Amino acid sequence: MINIKLGKLAMAVGAMCLSTAAFAQTSAVYTIDPTQLKATVQPTMYGVFFEDINMGADGGLYAELVKNRSFEFDRNLMGWTIKGDSSAVKVIDRKTERPDNPHYIKVAASTQGIMLVNEGFRGMGIRKGEAYNFSVIARQPAGGNVTLQLQLLDESGKVIGTASVQPKSAEWRKFKVSIPASAQAAKGSLAVVVQGKGTIDLDMISLFPQRTWKNRENGLRADLVQMLADMKPGFIRFPGGCIVEGRYLVNRYQWKKTVGDVDKRETIINRWNTEFKHRSTPDYFQSFGLGFMEYFMLAEDIGAEPLPILNCGMACQFNSGELVPVDQIDPYVQDALDLIEFANGDASTKWGKLRISLGHPAKFNLKMLGVGNENWGPNYVERWTLFRDAIKKKYPQVKIVTSTGTDPDGARFDTLNTAFRKLNADILDEHYYRPPQWFRDNAKRYDSYDRNGPKIFAGEYAAHVPGVDDALKKNNLEAALAEAAFMTGLERNADVVNMASYAPLFAHVDAWQWAPDLIWFDNLKHYGTPNYYVQKLYSLNKGTNVVPMLLNGQPIAGQAGIYANATVNNKSGELLIKLVNVSGNSQNADLNIKDLNKYQKTAWVTTLKNAKPNAVNSLAEPQLVSPVDSQVSITGDKLAIAAEPYSFKVIKLKLK
Q1: Average of per-residue pLDDT across 203-207
Q2: What is the pLDDT of residue 7?
Q3: Residue 374 annotated among the catalytic residues of the structure
Q4: What is the domain class of 48-63+213-539 according to CATH?
Q5: Mean pLDDT on 232-246
Q6: Residue from 519, 497, 500, 499 nearest 508 by CA
Q7: What is the pLDDT of residue 636?
Q8: Which of 453, 530, 557, 654 is the most buried (most CB within 10 A)?
Q9: Is the pTM of this model over 0.90?
Q10: 3 state SS of 509
């Protein structure tokens, strides 16, 4: 009896296994109709969001190697070490004469030399065989005989590059010299040895790699810009972020102070310097060497639409919440009008003339700008309305990006969403920093949005994996796949969602405040995270129109862990399919494509995957999780695709 029962049980279990195996081998059939053109995908669909957090500007994208080059930090010699007689170096205050750059140093030279060593931003990245452009604004009284001996130093203090300059001028003048590097250092430094007889005044002590992006003076770090250019983003949002608001209005971002001569751009404290107590960074300031002119030129260089965000008369509501009274808001509104003129005006306008004088006669063709960042409440609505009225009266074609607060739901969001829809806002900026599960669950978020209402900008988002303490491991594959799954919903609803950008963009591995981030770097190297490759693959393969991709007549948004959508590119004659498997099980898919015979018999497939969902890239293994290209032959009337566990695929078919 026992044996019979066991036999029957074995047969039942065997039948179950066969059934499970048969089910596992059954391919889901996804129907795709490339002839049904639905929503138009905007060229701006996928872009990048830049904010000076994590030393993303000074110490990062902005290629200046000297920290506190104009002695304007709270402690005027922060970043500098004096070797020799420290009493020979005095900080001079000239607030009345130069409120934008009130400090310089006066050095009494000696025959032995007074050495000033700058530590850089967690060191200086120096590459063997490259040259570094030193400059200084200096003056010395007539009859002086002071020379500056310049040294590039490696981590041990060994000299790996030398040059000298003798600033002979009784008036302030800029002096330059190039320093070749004979060795490499990841955390080097710059020594300025003041030798001779007399005294000398020094300001704006600067060191740039000769090889910057497009080899520009006051330029950007070439390798980091290339990472952005490779994405071909549709837009770049700048300069933030909470950096726009400031902890107080006095240190809000003021674009007019960031254009023109670099030595006249007022250095201020960076609001992120002590925001996170566990990552306090008291030496974090903003030099604004990377200012609005540089942002506009960067956007132009990489083929992205510029999207500047301006302060709306409100400081960060998580900090002081300081407000400009409504009857004093005019200068803030005028800043917005003047910015549009700066970008789009001709030589007959004040601000257009300034742009031309800065070497850019062509207009930047600004089409949109943001009013406020993560602001909320009736005070924001009131001030936004004043901006809207003034901008639309003078520049009706310019679209306004509008905050919906800090979260994708809740009282703040609901109030603003309702108010701005009634006010017929152009573009609503929604933010979501949530666990991966939220992104997977919200792939249908925009399916039910009003097609005739404001367009949506997914302005800041990133999946934050719970329980991961190591900042550099927060950017794992699980997070990236959750974002990829969510983005199928953004793209499927391109008639509502016109723009999207991951945030934040950059982080220095030794000087971050916030994680996760899209691109990590040190002073010499960088790597794209799995999240970066998701963003890049979407941006390079967005198509021009959404076409239906369905499972049993429904959008593919989580069935058996699969998320998918399809677009066509009418310019290149391509069908583009995105397929995300967030599960640990392999899934077989049959793509039933209408008019498949009109396409070439080979499909091009790019796959991002790893067997471990917690896999991450690093400086040591920058491409552990990175896209791999392959081809699949099409046989019969379907395209068979295997969606491996924890994978994201872009499948491309080309018309014959």
Answers
A1: 98
A2: 38
A3: yes
A4: alpha beta
A5: 97
A6: 519
A7: 85
A8: 530
A9: yes
A10: coil
